[in-house]
Design goal:
binds 5'-O-[(S)-ethoxy(hydroxy)phosphoryl]adenosine
Amino acid sequence: MLKKGDLYYPSKEFAHSAIINNKKIYKDAGKNPIKFWEGLAKELFWFKKWKKAFIHKPPYFQWFVGGKINITSNIFENNSLGWENIKNKAAIIWEPEIPEERQRVLTYYELFREVNRFANALKRLGVKKGDRVGIYLPMIPEAIISMLACARIGAIHTVVFSAFSSSALQIRLQDTKAKVLITADGYYRRAKVIDLKRNADEAIKNTKVKKMIVVKRAGNEVAWNRNRDLWWQNLVAGESDECDAQIMDAEDTLFILYTSGSTGKPKGTVQTCGGYAVQAKFTGKWIFDLRKDDIFWSTADLGWITGHTYSCYSPLLNAATFVIFEGAPNSPTPDRWARIIEKYGITIFYTAPTAVRMFKKYGADILKKYKFETLRLLSSVGEPIDESSWKWYFKEIGKNRCPVVDTWWQTETGGILITSLPGIGPFRPCFTGLPFPGLKFDIVDDKGKRVSSNKQGNLVLLPPFAPGLLRGIYRNPEKYLKTYWRQCGKKIYFTSDAALKDKNGLIRIVGRIDDVLKVAGHRFTTGELEDAVSHISYISESAVVGVLDEIKGQVPIIFVVLKETTPVEKVQKEIKLQLRKEIGPIISTKQVYIVKDLPKTRSGKIMRRILRKLFTGEELGDLSTLSNQESVEHIKSVINN
Ligand code: WTA
């Protein structure tokens, strides 16, 4: 990489061989974005070409209307790289949590046959096009096989992160009305078996789930319902390894993925078969310079959007080899992630700033034995990467050689939308980069007027948006309108992120303007955490605010008002348990404060901004809208105690 002032550029050698290395692409795509996306879509295999590339009836829009496609044909038998060329190369390398256990490698052909077998098994169970199927699996190949088998037959998958609790799973199964759930007996996490089946059994109460398919992974004892439960291994044994792809409309739903909404209830973002495939393929190809010979590792769990797009669909569409890892990156030793990079010769590494900060904290000693010679590109996602972590990543892992590509996007956008392309640049620490070619982003004030360079405002996306932008919130059209299209006559997509642009047009993401927290890159809302806490009988009111954390980026702190005196240790313990029960072990709070009152406006709204400032010790600003100003001094004394 070359450095010019604040900016970094790819080296001549990198740029020379990069898939995209000519700035002209921005100009060409910008002139006619619809034509640009059409050009990309043409590289995929369509059973029937679309009639109209883009239709816009604000706030609704459609892409590749009339086109017929199946994403799995584009991965397997009709892959644009040629099926014969890719069939016998490795697709998935699975690294188990226990280092001594044997890894599994599936070639494209093996994966294809497994997908077809399982697709046939699903059909035999009565799963049809449009039916929703729940997937609650750890990071094992069967998770990808399940997703692709659904896509093969036109069923809609809803993957639920395996570290989510049974309550979180239940809400999602109830909302989708899934009739089938795919899970595992258990899996390993930090050398311990996690009993996943028990959670699944609990979750399906009061849902429409009729059949539960269970992968034998950990071999732990599980309860068994003979009328309902089926072992995966038995189910697929007699199935044919051939299954025709269901011909799907471009606008048919491919999957529903839930993300945190503003209230306790998560919202199901809806992705389509055509637009998502186009965006998943080309963002991966151009942003990671991803080729067939790469060994790609995106550390994201399949339960999140980064897992869907870059630990599954994108590397497969690009016929790359990629790693999925069952465990935690620092288990059993802090350098587990580095060992995996060297073991498989990873060429492209994609992770979250939280992970980078954690690696950095372990210190240089653990890295001494690693040279990272195979790496050629590093990337980051999910939360802002601070300057010192960016530089550490660049120097200690990338050895000043690999571009560090920051990528901004959301569950709702299906794929990366803001980033600088590795063969072009420029890269600037703390700045995510430029909009992907063909996209029109703006930064506007609350009235929708564009703000000038270096001024903070709302990040918005203008038509024709992106083919992978969500088409709706499942069974909640009101929420879709209210959350994303509340400005400018429903014609611009509101990201809920604050951002600014420098004079080079590079965008810096400042953070969410709504009540979303990004804890270790994972998305939660203050509302859902408050909802969980409110189930504790002696808590009358609570307020959650996100505060900065050195490793996790952001963590929640919780203020509670009690109905009856209770010791603080008890309250803390029960809140911890409650969060585990309602959401899962991935969320915990940094601090719990018991207060007499919460600061409120005259209309009764809790002013979280004041709570946050009281915690950080910042200037409080104007307090005139507060109805109970005396609460401020009291809370200050509780915090300082
Ligand atoms: C934040 C994750 C800064 C942002 C793919 C966004 C980022 C939210 C970045 C979406 C980045 C994502 N720099 N902030 N590179 N990437 N974000 O739905 O606030 O889990 O709105 O999708 O994460 O989170 P989600």
